[in-house]
Amino acid sequence: QVQLVESGGGLVQPGGSLRLSCAASGIIFSAYVMGWYRQAPGKERELVAVITSGGSTNYADSVKGRFTISRDNAKNTVYLQMNSLKPEDTAVYLCNARLANLYWGQGTQVTVSS
User: Fold this and answer.
1) How many angstroms separate the Cα of 49 from the Cα of each of 25, 39, 114?
2) Which residue in 35, 44, 53, 91 has the fewest CB atoms around it within 10 Å?
3) Where are the alpha helices (DSSP H) in the chain?
4) Over the stretch 21-78, which tens digit does the pLDDT of each residue have?
5) Are 91 and 36 in contact (CB under 8 A)?
6) CA torsion, points 96, 112, 12, 36, in degrees to nearest 10?
7) 74: left (phi over 0), alpha (psi -120 to 50) or beta
8) What are the angstrom distances between the C-alpha of 16 and each of 7, 61, 88, 97, 112?
9) What is the SS3 assignment for 72?
10) CA 74 centroid distance within chain
């Protein structure tokens, strides 16, 4: 059974930082492309960042220079370091794992507000 479990969300003030984690089980983690997406109320789900099995990364323009995606294959975990957070970053953040199949986690809420 495949499971992706996100953690690390919460309430943070503008300019603050959070680190999200997504722990995977039931897949050969190192082979998968891992991604972080987000969905704000009333908006479409959007790609935030992706990291390939080889470690190549890609980011949405809106987060470039502020967010960093990384992975630890020994821990079957992908991370999203989020710095200089803005109110418009408020959303549910979800991770996915993509190879032949696509798997999603249930998400973690990030709220940026003073």
Assistant:
1) 20, 13, 25
2) 44
3) none
4) 999 999 999 999 999 999 999 999 999 999 999 999 999 999 999 999 999 999 999 9
5) no
6) 10
7) alpha
8) 17, 19, 13, 27, 8
9) strand
10) 18
Q: What Å distances lie between residue 57 and 23, 69, 74, 80, 113, CA to CA?
A: 18, 7, 19, 12, 28
Q: Which two tokens stand for residue 55?
A: 């470690």
Answer for the pair 76, 24: CB distance below 8 angstroms, yes or no: yes
In one letter, which amino acid is 64?
K
For residue 47, the model assigns a pLDDT of: 98
Helix (H) or strand (E) holding 103: strand 102-104
